[in-house]
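Why does residue order matter? Because the sequence determines the fold. Keep that principle in mind as you read this record.
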Amino acid sequence: MTISEFIDSLKDSPQGCFNPWYHKDKKNDFIENAPDIRRNQLETYLSERLGRAKYLFIAEALGYQGGHFTGIAMTSERILLGHQVKKYGVEPDHVFKEIEPIRTSKPSLNKLGMSEPTATIMWGALIELGIDPYEVVLWNSVPWHPYKKENGMLTNRTPLSHEMDAGLHHLKNILKLYSGIRVIAVGRKCEESLGLLGVEHIAVRHPANGGALKFRRQLSELSKL
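Structure:
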């Protein structure tokens, strides 16, 4: 399976999940071809790490402040637009180099682009510890964005069991694309998915909700192995 074929396979997503590569967020997208942009950004991100990645980090699901608008797991628009350089040292070309990053959210939502705490902590920790970001692939057990229907797209919720099940096929495929590298589960939900697939992995604390300090410490220990 090629990366292009892998991304094509993501088209069939469960109801109640926003698919950033094939769905348009009619209320919050800034441009008409937003899904095409997010698809292109994901393909470039994944392609630039083939044959180079050493770590595959698997978290739970896309969030509205991150992959919903960038198309890339645990990666925010604020990172892509260069607004995390001064404070965290995270450059846009740490994500990809072959294309220019483009925001897809309306500027009225956030002038500097959407910002996700998990993305900020993850990328900031990689750069702080001197880990080459091109040796790291970020992904989710549920590749799409589960949202609260009653409250709109700009919400997150815990994935349902059938959504976790739907993500297993794609998790299996990305493990094949980046075979032979170290797999790290970021949080308990993805541990369950990796366990169901019988994948050997290392578990770390999810950086959100007070887990940032422990996550950074575990990542530091991991980088020394």
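The chain has one domain: 3-223.
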